Amino acid sequence: MPTALSARLRRALPRPRLTRRRIVIGAVVLAVLVGALSWAVRPSSPGYRITSQMITVQTGPAGTTPISLDTTYYQPDSASAAHPAAAVLLAHGFGGTKDDVADDAKDLASRGYAVLAWTAEGFGESGGQIHLDSPDWEVKDAQHLIDWLSARPEVRKDGPRDPRVAAVGASYGGGLALMLAGYDRRVDAIVPQITWNDLGNAFLPSATGAGASSGVFKKGWAGIFFTGGAVPAALPGSGAAVPGAGGATLPGAGGALTPPTGATPTCGRFAADLCAAYLSIATTGRATPDQLALLERSSPASVLDRIHAPALLIQGQADSLFPLSEADANAKGIAANGTPVQVDWFIGGHDGGNGPQSDQDRNRYLTVQWLDHYLLGKGSAPSTSFTYSRLAGIDANTDSVVALGYSVHGYPGLSGQSSTTVTVAGPPQPAVNPPNGTPAGISTVPGVGGGPAGATGGTAQDVPGQHADFYSEPLKSTVDVVGTPTVRVRAASPTGQAVLFVKLYDVDPHSGATLPDGLVAPVRLTGLPATLADAPAVTVTLPGIVHQFQAGHRLRVTVATSDQAYLSPPDPTVYQLAVTGGVRLPTVHSTPIASPDLIWRWILAGLAAALAIGTVVAIVLGRRRHRKFSNRSGSARLSPRDDPDQSHLARADLADIPLVVSGLRKEYGDGFVAVSKVDFTVRRGQVVGLLGPNGAGKTTSLRVLMGLTKPTAGDIYVFGHRLVSGAPVLSRLGALVEGPGFLPHLSGLANLQLYWRSTGRPLADARLDEALDIAGLGDAVHRRIKTYSHGMRQRLAIAQAMLGLPELLVLDEPTDGLDPPQIAEMRRVLRRYATDGRAVLVSSHLLAEVEQTCTHVVVVHKGTVVADGPVDDIVGDSPSVQFDVSDPATATEVLNRSGVRSVSGEGNGTLIADLDGADRADVVAELVRAGVGVNRVVPRRRLEDAFLSLVGGDTKASGER
């Protein structure tokens, strides 16, 4: 039976007429919504079939050695002889198996590619030995797998025994992709990642360009490689075909305790020639021409001039195994053939892991785009621009690292498009080469970076007496380095030779030195004079980096004699070292790019916006129709809140008052009333404290004030303007309510500047110096946020709220995390701020601080204001009395019988009693009659007492939202 209310509503509101047009529109909207819902909740289907099998190939120099390879084939459901699919050969990292790339294979198969993954020779269940991507073994293996794909009816063909196929892999798999493309023209596209150009140069690098024959042996990584040939585990960061899509472990971490089948105690599953080469180089630290030739046969450098498959080269910035220079050499060699090449650097690598999620998504997007075009002919040719990433900060929602991508027109190489030279200086210095390289300095611990944060070089250490340091002056402006810096070094040695390790540190004057990505340039010098005066300058090319050297920081060039990742000369000696001139820092002209994740967010946001616009249009049309009907019937009137044209009208009578809160009410949808009725005013020159027990409505009131939630009723006026989202008057207000979000890798000053620029106002209007002076941060503002204590972050947040010296400052618990001296300083800060016509509204639970800081107090209890006025007036109303008595226990019993509200002891015979209207003389008489000596009776005028009397001792939470 309808209620009286529903009957009145039916009479008041117009009845909708079901016209043909409305029925059609409604049906369309319903169909769209049902379709969207069905799409969102539809059961997922893999869309492919998986088949695992052993495939025997005839390989070896003569092509007659049978080797069994453990494979898995992912066949898309959409692929058939009538509708063939392009194929992808998916290779794993060193020490891993086909299982390491299973997630990548499934992803590609779900996109319609036929994917064949396999375990390389010498690993897992596959037979054979490790030949390091030899053209006679692993490359021939892959060629036979291409033959196998060509026999599949569901795989697209370009000709007899010529499938449409790409080779994709990371690290060991990336080297295989490059080698295969050089030996087999059937490969139509390649995506090598974090891989090498020349194994000789990679394991015997020389930063002077002298070549592997004069390089310094990378014993740490070589040892990990050799160990990885004995156990079935994967190199860190090498298991994923698309960075970020596969976990990897350190060789030996979780591997079998006994050698796999075919392994020998000395060599594991390495081929005998490679094993002998490793044992020799690891012993002497030098490689013979034959050994270098053996490594060269397994190096893409030997076949770059034969690669015609378009190549997407993805390389990690945090990689001391295969640094950016390896990808650079591959890119230049392939591009020389006229072959399309795109280069991408991401924040990760063998030391840095898979990188931030934003980088993983971007690299996955680039990979799919590359394959879609060159295998399927989809879309226009991908750009051959150069892309890279820079660490941006920490995602406040996930606590994960966030990277920003940048694009550069054309590949500039490691020398950049332009450069800045920074002078470094210091006197010539001696440095000791320790016997057998012990103790040794630390740059990056090979394979233990574990992520971008672990590869920042923050733990780099140099042994005292074993290095020379040369410093620049503080930088006058920030330099964004993208590429390989260079520096000129001079050295003298009594033995005529030296092995040195050159590093470029970023020295923050407050938080110390950081070695970007933990990378170091090894140098072997020969023919050196005994004295430094006769030593020529040698140009050292430092590792490629992407790093921002901030203004105020110094550069430090350190020339060390040892590094635990490399093999040093065994004999102790003393070198003389010097640096000539400055450091050349390469830079590029780049533009920010959106990550695929951001692109999809924009697409979804666009769909949501379209849906929202349709909803708003429908509501507006409905309201207009209702208003017209109501105005005709005389049953409704428009209020200023309903009329958007009235929302920004200012009240002239309130134009000089910073804040007026009138009739504020906030009720949530479930009926919970957080604020029932709040009224108060904040005038110029006042510091107003907003007090109340938990659940009283303080935070809700501040959230409404800052536009973080909408009120149910009431109005807020700031300098006479009704407060609405986006109102220009908000520029006159500064606030700290929800807590700030700072980028930890930037200094406090840089964070403040970034925040102010985001407001769109000129930096000159920020009045930074004045805000910093009031907040009292001092030199700490130049330190990186990650070095700040909680209290320092809080003070910086308050400085941020003070930028531009807003006329009204709103702070929620500003003393949170501050120690007593800082709290006292904050008291002075707020008092200083409320001058020159400014005003402060502060919410705090520290009643004693409010009493000493604030000029006025607003006490809120159960959603309403129970007291409002000057602090002295509020304290004057306190009913508390202090009794100094001879017998506190008896006095407490007497006071409780006398009807007082509460009694508490403070020691030494002092009691504090809330008389709750009882006559003080009568209470004293009761104490005397009970034999209690009363030494003193004085009013206890404290804000705390007044507060407790106003809220009735109710200080417990009541579910405030």
Automatic annotation (TrEMBL):
SMART domains: AAA (SM00382), PepX_C (SM00939). Pfam families: ABC_tran (PF00005), Peptidase_S15 (PF02129), PepX_C (PF08530). GO terms for molecular function: ATP binding; ATP hydrolysis activity; dipeptidyl-peptidase activity. Keywords: ATP-binding, Hydrolase, Membrane, Nucleotide-binding, Transmembrane, Transmembrane helix, Transport. The chain crosses the membrane at residues 599-622. InterPro entries: AAA+_ATPase (IPR003593), AB_hydrolase_fold (IPR029058), ABC_transporter-like_ATP-bd (IPR003439), ABC_transporter-like_CS (IPR017871), Galactose-bd-like_sf (IPR008979), P-loop_NTPase (IPR027417), Xaa-Pro-like_dom (IPR000383), Xaa-Pro_dipept_C (IPR013736). Residues 659-887 form the ABC transporter domain. The keyword ATP-binding applies. Belongs to the ABC transporter superfamily. This is ABC transporter ATP-binding protein. The lineage of its organism: Bacteria, Bacillati, Actinomycetota, Actinomycetes, Micromonosporales.
